[in-house]
Design goal:
By secondary structure, the protein is an all-alpha fold. Helices cover about 75% and strands about 0% of the residues. Helix 2 runs antiparallel to helix 3. The longest helix has about 35 residues. The two termini are about 30 Å apart.
Length: about 160
Amino acid sequence: MTAPNALDHVRPVFRRILVWAGLLAIALAVVGGVVGLLVAGTPGLAGGLLGAVLSVVFLGLTALSVLVALRVSKGQMISGAFFGIVMGTWLLKFVLFIVVLVLLRGSGWIDFPTLAVVIIVGVVGSLVIDVVAVAKARVPIGVALPGSSSDPEKNDTRN
């Protein structure tokens, strides 16, 4: 038995995640920027805006990598290509995130506490978006349930 093709069913879920992540980015930029400006001045504004950009870019790459991996693997989520693309993107995000933080360390034009808080809020918000989008999704799993067969003898639960 081949695995069900997830391409048509999962793509709308991840597109919804990307749209919601865009809305989260706008909210993070506005709230993080304003709060950063009030708390730490211009460096706080820069930290809030950069934190919003970093959190959404890095977290949006996950959804994009799943969409690309689904296309490359022709919808087979159990293929090596699918896992290779998703895990490769995750490793690339991790390395890039560390490099960005090292490059920004010691910069006087950015407030690191504001940057960190906005990134943490972005990560938590992204996780909430992922959970809600996936929980509300109606993705078929391709498994026959007991009693769904057209054969009456197979549906008979009396023994």
